[in-house]
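Lab meeting, action items carried over

1. Structure of the two-component assembly. Owner: GW. Status: complete.
Input record:
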Amino acid sequence: MNIPYNNIRGGLFTYCQTVILFCILLLGINQVNAQQIPVNSIKDERSPIYAFINATLHVDAYTVVENATLLIENEKILDAGKNVKIPNEAIVIDCSGKHILPSFIDAYSTIGMPVGKKTYESRPQYTSSKKGPWYWNETVHPEVHGARLFEFQDESASGLRQKGFGLANVHQRDGIVRGTGAVVALSNHDENKIIVKPYATQHFSFNKGQSRQEYPGSQTGAIALMRQFFYDVEFWKNEKNRKETNLSLEDFLQWEKLPYVLETSDKQEIFRGARIAKEFGFRFVYKAVGNEYQRAADIASLNTTLIIPLTFPQAMDMTNAWDANEASLSDLKHWEMAPLNPSVLKNHQIRFAITSDGCSMPDFFQHMYKACHHGLDSATLLAALTTVPAEILGLSSQAGSLHKNKWANFLITEAYPGHEKFRILENWIMGKQYVTNARTDQTDFTGEYLLQIPELSFFHLKKLVVVGQPQKYQATLHISDSTKIACQIKQEQHLISLHYYAHAMGGFVRISIHKSEKDKWSGLLTNPNGHTYNIWLQQLEVESSQNNIQEKDKPIIGETVYPFRSFGFTATEWKEVENKKSWLITNTTVWTCESTGVLTQADVWIENGKIRKVGRGIKADKDAIIIDGSGLHLTPGLIDEHSHIALSRGVNEAAESSSAEVRMSDVINAEDINIYRQLAGGVTTSQLLHGSANPIGGQSALIKLRWGRSAEQMLFENAPGFIKFALGENVKQSNWGDAYSIRYPQSRMGVEQFYYDMFAQAVEYAKKKEKDRGKNMELEILVEILQSKRFITCHSYVQSEINMLMKVADSLGFKVNTFTHILEGYKVADKMKSHPVNASTFSDWWAYKMEVMDAIPYNASLLTRMGVNTCINSDDAEMARRLNQEAAKAIKYGGLTREEALKLVTINPARMLRIDHKVGSIREGKDADIVIWSDDPLSIYAKPLYTFVDGIQYYSYQRNQELIQRDKKEKNRLIQKMLDAMNNGHQVVPITLKKYWLYDCEDLHADDEELLRIEP
Amino acid sequence: MKKYVCILLFITPILLLAQRPSPGMSQQKSILIKNAIIHDGNRNAFLGSVGFNNGIITYLQNPAMPDYQTPVFDTIIDANGQHLYPGFILLNTTLGLTEVDAVRATRDFSETGEMRSEVRSVIAYNTDSKIIPTVRNNGVLLAQPTPQGGIISGQSGIVQLDAWNWEDAVILIEDGIHLHWPSRIRTYTPWDDEQASYRFQNNRTKNIYQIEKLFLEGYQYHLSKDSKPVNHKLAAMDGLFTGKKNLYLHADSENEIMESVLFFESLHVKNIVLVGASSAYSILSFIKSHNLSVILSRIHALPSHEDHPIHQPYRLPALLDSAGILFSIDYSGDMEAMGSRNLPFTAGTAVAYGLDYEAAVSVLTLQAARIIGIDDKYGSIQPGKSATFFLTAGDALDMSSNLLTKAYIDGRLINLGSHQYDLYKQYLHKYGLKER
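Predicted assembly:
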């Protein structure tokens, strides 16, 4: 009969089982060692036995027994089910018409935890302010334990109890490595008793919280720090002869086997977490945010567990038509689709628990109903609130279901979770009763009643209609079909009192009734004169139209688009785009960017992602879709050597002078609208660089602009590794304000010595064996540079520093690969040529700071003519849409030929990125990254009509027009729907807009978006 | 094209390693430029001749005119089919008010306080800025240096870009007052308390009330200024009520535009010019019926909203033009002063996205002149107007052919050298390269 929820997946639970064992052991100790706490009274220990009979018993999420009995003694379940023998002495409680289900378990809570405050000081703090033998970074504190900080607060516990929770896993929500969580029972015993599992989980996040230490100042830094921590743990674990004390690492190792919970702030962070987990061979349980349905398939492939909140956004105030347009389509769609999140996850077979975090009452129950209304079944809902969190916390044998010998944690409810009328009457926690709503026999008084007053026969026709919910009934008395009087109504336990103003009699009539038999109520009516009469109320059968309503109310929901925003593709649109694999562009002007130059009246055949043939009169196969290229121009996809689009939460890990350990590939934001905008400008490949805030920056990510794909799918396959370096004003913090004047280096002199020092450390590091030194992610990267396995792109302006870095490199036996910006490159073009090094420059920027006062727009042409491989980059989300125009400026300034100019944004950057064997020119066998232009690509009048990446037409001018119309229509539909919600009494909030930061090199912001609100 | 580059070489024979090239000498001899494709700024283009004397255009010949009556000129220049445009006008700019953006000491475009109607930009306009020649060399010959910041930033003026000092440069010392309408949009932070929204609205209401008070009292001062003690803040506003000065109203969203325009109309302001106005396209009839002119912000911009059509900023000029609205475009935003040499190309982009070519020229010339009220003297090639124009090898709105061979302001021949060009020449020489 009892089918245990047996959907355990994932490696997590291989050690979860160990944890369970361990936990049982621990509890055992707890019981044995229970201290005698003196009480200031006479001893009052009881062992009552309760029997709850006639209930609809949800033994677990998937097992429901009608007319069942639950038998408990103290905090234990003695028996549960159909044929339970009830001892004579048991207190029997009739629960007919009621549901009994396991109390909920909140796997993610912070109740009873101290809330710290971040302090502010004007000077930056570079080292940890926490004294003692701890981890070097303040935001890594595995030594913080929820069990040691927990203080019972009945107020917050009561809040959770009312939502139906019996257990909560609490931890301090602060830092990147946060420490452990403890499972507490929400009953008001003392802490010794209610902490039922002191060490249940390990907690992590990418948010440094209260730490004032500068590092990490970005998400890429946070990820690097977390990885370095895990490397340190590995080293510490295997190191037999420890030469120092580190209590943080020791503490972590003690609880290493607990499940790891990572708090995310967006669905994309789940993939970032998964990348770390994969590297170190564990799995995270993710505390999610509620938008995971937007990437459900990718999340499903991770085979992981989520803890999701039931927070659904509120409707926005759409009354002002102009303001309404400011709301973003993604926000509007999320408003509509957020309630789908649980059911979508379920359909993708993603295991999830539900937390009440961020969701107060009565929203929590309403949202359960909403989720079920949007396709979630109540069994999965109940599992997400009981068995799944119990499994995550390793408490399956004690909690989460109502089997024999488990804890007596259960709810007595009306209806079942997810039902519209779901209501908790009592919440029993560890055998202790908490009344949320008086159980009594209070029946639902809603319905229609016929009033009968035997002494007053004319009263017969009157009808009472009661709607709403207990405590919030609304009653109307129908005197005739047209005359209705509102009544005040109140229910107290078994008694119903109501009164109304009777016009005819000029006073108030009062009725007091109680239930007498099935469907019948009886009592007294008192008229304004004080005369009383016997009254009978007979409940009328109301035809149930429930099913019809539900059918009608089935929500109409828009489609998910990838990415989840305007200009995203639906699954169908995707298929259509993806399935077109063979194209023939005929009779066009082909700018090959090869020695073949510009071909006229030529054909290009692309197939399966590659350029198949280039020439005149090509015969492609039958399936090839033909684009008539006459009058049009075809070029390779443009390559932006220096870009900062599509990055999340910070482009600079600026805290320390070297941040070689950070990887931009960790924080790719695959949903940045600028990806699409730049595709529309003909860009197909971008190098996403770390900023220029420190001499040694982070590792670059090379992506293809595969709009709609995930971050991982955007990465350029087998691209060589690059790293950003920087020189000059930025790295010496010249324009950071007076507080920032203590970090070494503060002068160009210091920059040189900093490099020598770092590389010297790397040389020393490389000499030692790994088992003797552990892994230092930062130095490892510098070693790669020394071995010419990783290449430098160095932000640079003035000639002295350009010269300096080349000399540093020469002395250490490697070459600088690229100087980027390099606005004074023209002054040392001959030296650059002989190094040799590539140049990646702006067309005409200057005069924005002192070090660019000698910048000239002739730079690109001078360098090119001196034989330095040169490209034009953007460093700017707007300019990248017009890279062709920026290249064309080299014709104006310095007289490059048109072909030379185009190469500045195609084959030249491909060469300096060491990917010229794949992209950058039109040659058979290369990747089909192609742009078709309306005009000469170097003309201001040229518009990209089609952009192909890997032979897939990710952008077309025509389709773009269609998408604009599609999105407009969808937005309008959603605005109408919100107005409808508003008119139906839903609360609305002011319109919130998102403003996205557009990063450039110097940006020190760690947030990529800013929320704005319209406040008319 | 080489030919024109040679001309370029020829006219900058002396490499003066000074701060900036010397301003041109005033016109001594009458000049006729013939065989030029003339874009007259008034939406016409034709092959013809322009004659000018004492800084004024005295003669214009177009194909419709018989040319048997060509007057006598001291100098005749054969343009050989080069393009001739009226000098482009750069509106709403910090050019000349800043030199190195990162260096505070060189920034002179923002005063303290919220209501600064009294300050005027022209007296801070630095004619010796190294940036100015680089802008001029792409065809921008007139500009409107404009204060920034605050609610009322101050007064802009109009200058020509080849002068020894600001007094020489000035065309209009004060042409209008710039006002930034308080935004309806609040930055929303996670640590906002419940009062944040209230405070924002309260502050906004207070600011609007302050503006109203200033304008009401300014109008009263205007009516009775002879009897009142001098007040420079209010005196500066006088022209707004007579129509001598424009109110440059910086506002972007539809609601802000409509709200503020109705507000100032009721406060006796005669001429309102909208600045920014990125949402103007959706309330064209409002703008038209209220007879507003518009200065659109830089066309080379990202859409202001993630959902907007990706080419929205590029298409704005065409939309305004087809609605018959008087408008121009500026180059405000990041890298404003030094980047403004790209102003002509932004107009080129507008052409790519639907604006008529000659209309685009007009946007940068006659339409701009009309908005700022100097169209009696500048903005088009027309006898009686100032000889302020330039010749290029090709299309001035396209970067690869925007190669100036000659430029005149008030008939004075401009030196097309620059600090940047000097450096270029030095390093060509160092590397033994020839100029292409």
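2. GW to write a short summary for the group page. Key points so far: Confidence is low (pLDDT under 50) at residues 1-33, 545-549 of chain A. The radius of gyration of chain A is 35 Å.
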